[in-house]
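Data deposition worksheet. Section B asks for the primary sequence of the deposited chain exactly as it was used as input, without tags or linkers unless they were present during the calculation. Section C holds the resulting structure in token form. Section D is free text for depositor observations; keep each observation to a single sentence. Incomplete worksheets are returned to the depositor.
Section A, Depositor: J.P.
Section B:
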Amino acid sequence: MLTGDTQQRETAVDCVVREIREETGLKVQIDYLVGNYFRSLHNDQQAIFKVTPLNKKTIVSGPETKQIAYFPINRLPKNMVALRRRQILDTFHGRRQLEYTQKECRLSFYAEKIIRRIFKLG
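Section C:
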């Protein structure tokens, strides 16, 4: 990823630290890579890291953040981004270096694409 006027390459770790700070206000230390998660039909790859916050103050809101909340592991929200529940549970259980590919149903994938086009969601 290129950043700033100097066009220097940003490492994945630097990107994670920066994004968390921008979106939450938290300064963090990267502990380890939990895993790489793939959804091949969606051409989606996510690298998930376990981090430790170095401060406790979060932002109230921001350009990418409406609200920040903490949830008990047994009361995670029902409507989350694809794979997020699995990623949270893998992190909670201390898993590392996973390579996970979600099995996707082609029919559901194409139905989702049609719905997105109808409602112009992306």
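Section D:
The CA atoms of residues 116 and 122 lie 6 Å apart.
DSSP finds three helices and five strands in the chain.
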